[in-house]
Each structure stands twice: as structure tokens, then as C-alpha cells.
Design a protein that fits this description.
Strands 1, 2, 7, 8, 9, 10 and 19 form a 7-stranded mixed beta sheet that branches. A 6-stranded antiparallel barrel has the order 12-15-14-13-16-17. A 3-stranded antiparallel beta sheet has the order 3-6-5. Helices cover 30% and strands 27% of the residues. The protein has 2 domains: 251 residues, FAD/NAD(P)-binding domain (3-Layer(bba) Sandwich), CATH 3.50.50; 147 residues, no CATH class. It is of the alpha+beta class.
Length: 415
């Protein structure tokens, strides 16, 4: 397009690229300071990924200590120290309640809107943005950003120019591309000389080599999932689920984030189906039930021990021929107990990064000031939220990263 057709827009104090959780929150606090603020959003509406967060319920944060949040951040937790101290989980809760959102706290200190509707969270953010005069440009694809004479010129795909003193990159990662996560923030960061840590799946299903299609849809509660890699062992207890080719659900997602940067190709993964019972107690239980169910077939007995959908697969896994319980010997008991305590699979891979709840990897935090989220390489260029190489476990911790980095950044923006 010829230069005389380029449309020059107003000059802003700050332009935020991305209208998700971190971008919306940053715009509110920037505008509250009196900064002329513009949000450029790729989608047709704000908060598109936020809308599906927590299965549409939006797990806002975790009502726990800063120390607990740091412990649940898997990658670069030290980077988050200043941000969490500046805007804690309790500050997030106060922000939303002060602005009219009723909230509730559930198991594991997970905080949700009382309505169970993520749309109510987005409405609060949008209302605040309007109140403080944040300008929003939807359906806007940023093509390139150039810094010249102390100002940034942001070009959209139609070559409209948005000029600003500061740029905040809040573009998210690669997860859920249907919500507009294109990975553009990484390209922008590279253009300004930043290193991008390789992006991997996080909080994603673990694909296995075995044919587990018959277990598809089976949920297990209060089990322990274990992964052994070399001499290291990682465990998570709670709920999980099978798909036709993967292990998913809370504890599987947790372990995926822990092992995604390790060499898991030869890892051992197994489920302790009876974590409350030791090997000895399980043997005592089997000995008693061999007497109680002496005339019952072993396979039928498994229905008293396991969910119905698991029986056939477990029966084959245990390697015991069908016989009367009275005929179960010590060697058989050992096989049953080993199968109950180490119901094992082999890892094929982690699911695609675009399937994960969040992206692990991103802008290298070594090149970002942890006290402001400002680039150490380019003055007045900021990175917040999922675009950074910081990620956490489930429970509201990832959204807290978005809120905290947004607040910290906004409060260091210059007028």
C-alpha cells in the first residue's frame, strides 16, 4: 500500500496488544492512572479465552498465600515474587468484589464467580474499562511494530498506524488457537531481540501407547498417578479420566506440566488404584475376600473391587486366568496387588501444545525486569501473562499470573 494511503491514528500513552485476561486488567489500571490507553484485540470480542476458562466457570484465583502460589508455579516462580506481592490473590478477590462480582471459594481454595459464569467476570472487566475510558479496537491484527525516535508505531494488516509511548504485549501463548492464540507475541518479541524459550504443552493430556479405547470416558477418583523418570519420581493424587488414547483430568494435567521439559520417552507411568491401602493391607483384604467369595469367579470378583468399565482391561492386565477365588494362590495375590498399586502404561507423548490449557515456554524472563515486566532490551516495551515463560498448575494459579503481571506492569507505565 502506498504511503499516502496509510492512516495515522492518535498518539497514546500505552497500547496493549491483546484483550484477554492480562490485557484487560492492565488497561484498567493504566487508564486509572490517567494514561491514554488503547487495547488492540485480534478477536471480535474481548476475553475469548477467559470465557472458556475453568470449563466456562472461570477459576479466578486461589485464595491462599503468596508462598503457596509460588510453590504451584512450575516454571520461573522466582520471577513472580514481586508481581504476587504487588497484587496478591486477596487483592484480586477484592478487585472483583469491589466492582460488583459475587464470588465463592470451593475445594482447594479455588475461587469462582458465584454465578459459575465466566461471562460475569468479563462483564466486570469491560465495565471497568469503559468507566476509565479505555479505547478498544476489535478485529485488529497487528502486522508489525517499529520503534523510532522514542515512540512505537504499531501497524495493523491494513497499514493503519497506532503511535504510542509504551507497548504492552498481552497476546497469550499457543494454546486454544480458536480463541485467537496465534503466537504473534513471540514474533514481536524476536523482532526486538528477545529470546523465546521453546513452547511446549502444559496442563495437557498424556498420550499412551496402549489401546485404552475401551476405557474412554472412565473417571477415577482419589487415585495416585506416578511418573518415574530415571531416578526421579513425580506423583499427584486426586481425580483423572481416560480418553480413547490418553490420560487426562486434574492429576494427569498436573504431571504433564511437571515432566514436559524432561526426557519422558522411557518414563514409567502408573496409577495406584488403592492409595489408602498398603501392599500388606491389600494382601490381608484379598485373603479375607478369598474366603468370603470362595465360589465366585476371579473376574466376577473384580466387580466388587473396581469400576465396571475397568474390569475387563484390568483382568487382562493382571495376567491371571479366570478361576474360582478359592483357587487364588499367593503368586496370584501378588499379581493382583501389583496391578492395583502399579496399573502401568507407557508414554507416547504429551498432547499438542495447541490442546494444552496453557503454553509452557515463551519470552525468556531473564530478559524481563521482574519488578516491572519491562523488557531489559527495549525501553517501554512490556510483556505480561501467558506470553512469558511462566506457567503454573491448575487451581487458579495461571490466571493469578495474568492479573499480577498486568497490575505490576500498569503501575510502572510512564505517562
Amino acid at each position: 500500500m502506498k504511503n499516502d494511503m496509510i492512516k495515522l491514528m492518535d498518539i497514546y500513552d500505552v497500547v496493549i496488544i491483546g484483550g484477554g485476561a492480562s490485557g484487560m486488567m492492565a488497561s484498567i489500571f493504566a487508564a486509572q492512572k490517567g494514561l491514554k490507553t488503547l487495547v488492540l484485540e485480534h478477536n471480535e470480542k474481548l476475553g475469548k479465552k477467559l470465557y472458556i476458562t475453568g470449563k466456562g466457570r472461570c477459576n479466578l484465583t486461589n485464595d491462599s498465600s503468596i508462598e503457596n502460589h509460588l510453590n504451584n508455579i512450575v516454571v520461573n516462580n522466582k520471577f513472580m515474587y514481586s508481581a504476587l506481592n504487588a497484587f496478591s490473590a486477596q487483592d484480586v478477590m477484592k478487585f472483583f468484589t469491589d466492582n460488583g462480582l459475587n464470588i465463592k471459594t470451593e475445594r482447594g481454595n479455588r475461587v469462582f464467580p458465584a454465578s459459575d459464569k465466566s461471562s460475569d467476570v468479563i462483564k466486570v472487566l469491560e465495565n471497568c474499562m469503559r468507566r476509565y475510558g479505555v479505547e478498544v479496537q476489535l478485529n485488529t491484527d497487528v502486522a508489525r511494530v517499529i520503534k523510532k525516535d522514542g515512540y512505537f508505531n504499531i501497524y495493523d494488516k491494513y497499514d493503519n498506524i497506532y503511535t504510542t509511548a509504551s507497548v504492552v504485549v498481552a497476546t497469550g501463548g499457543l494454546s486454544y488457537p480458536a480463541t485467537g492464540s496465534t503466537g504473534y507475541g513471540y514474533y514481536l518479541a524476536r523482532d526486538f531481540g528477545h529470546k523465546i524459550v521453546e513452547c511446549k504443552s502444559a496442563l495437557c493430556p498424556i498420550l499412551v501407547n496402549e489401546d485404552i479405547s475401551e476405557l474412554n470416558g472412565l473417571s477415577l477418583k482419589n487415585v495416585v498417578l506416578n511418573v518415574e523418570i530415571d531416578s526421579k519420581k513425580f506423583s499427584s493424587q486426586g481425580e483423572m479420566m481416560f480418553t480413547y488414547n490418553s490420560l487426562t483430568g486434574p492429576i494427569s494435567l498436573t504431571l504433564s506440566s511437571i515432566i514436559n521439559k524432561l526426557n519422558y520417552k522411557n518414563a514409567k507411568i502408573y496409577i495406584d488404584l488403592k492409595p489408602a491401602l498398603s501392599y500388606e493391607k491389600l494382601d490381608d483384604k484379598l485373603c479375607r475376600e478369598i474366603v468370603t467369595y470362595a465360589k465366585k469367579d476371579y473376574k466376577n470378583y473384580l466387580h466388587t473391587l473396581l469400576p465396571k468399565k475397568l474390569v475387563d482391561y484390568f483382568y487382562m492386565h493382571s495376567g491371571i486366568e479366570n478361576k474360582k477365588m478359592a483357587d487364588i494362590n499367593r503368586q496370584d495375590r501378588e499379581k493382583i496387588i501389583n496391578s492395583l498399586k502399579k496399573f502401568d502404561f507407557s508414554i507416547k507423548s504429551l498432547d499438542n501444545v495447541r490442546v494444552g490449557i496453557i503454553t509452557s515456554g515463551g519470552v525468556d524472563v531473564k530478559e524481563i525486569n521482574s519488578k516491572s515486566c519491562e523488557s531489559k532490551l527495549v525501553e517501554n516495551l512490556y510483556f505480561i501473562g501467558e506470553v512469558l515463560d511462566v506457567d503454573a498448575l491448575t487451581g487458579g494459579y495461571n490466571l493469578q499470573i495474568a492479573w499480577s503481571t498486568a497490575y505490576l506492569c500498569a503501575n510502572h507505565l510512564k505517562g
